[in-house]
Amino acid sequence: MGMVFGRICVETPKYQVLKSTPNYEIRAYPPSVIAEVTYDPSQFKGDKDAGFTILANYIGVMGNPQNTKPEKIAMTAPVITKSSEKIAMTAPVVTKEGGGDQKAVTMAFILSSKYERAEEAPRPVDERVVVREEGGKKYGVVGFSGSAPEKVVAEKVAKLRACLQGDGFKVVGDYLLARFNPPWSLPPFRTNEVMIPIE
Predict the structure, then answer these.
(1) Contact 133, 116 (CB under 8 A)
(2) Which CATH architecture has domain 32-134?
(3) I need a labelling partner for 181 at 20 to 30 A (CA). Which of 3, 10, 133, 192 fits?
(4) d(CA 51, CA 44)
(5) Residue (of 17, 60, 54, 19) closest to 38 by Cα position
């Protein structure tokens, strides 16, 4: 019942707040291990969240874990998504948020902090799932509640980017959308964040 009302009862990433303003926070995140899948939503009837099921199967949310141990891996929050322009065949390049009609989507789960290196995590059976280490990074972050449709996210990204650049921060990559609640949580109680990497 708590998850319907937005209660987050799974592990979330630890971070250090370096600066806090009325418009955003600057956070430093330590290295982590992530499981991610990159896909073309058009192959899933336009479903931009199609990667969730693939990743959930890997960690065993919906039954037997689809990894070589097999080992159930604890669910964490948030679920991270980013869009990237597609080039060549199916290779994505993540250098900007927009451009072109065809975009690949990468969805990632941050694995439990008990996995400190990628090789410690169980190997996925599904070859689309990649487990890798993500180095420590700094982000400008703004949170918001409710649903996260593209228009709302685009507005949050534009405002955050302008604030960061106006305050002298150098943006060094694409934004990430972090969603902390399952889809059955009531929209007013959902927690979302837009994160932009900075130097």
Answers:
(1) no
(2) Alpha-Beta Barrel (3.20)
(3) 133
(4) 9
(5) 54
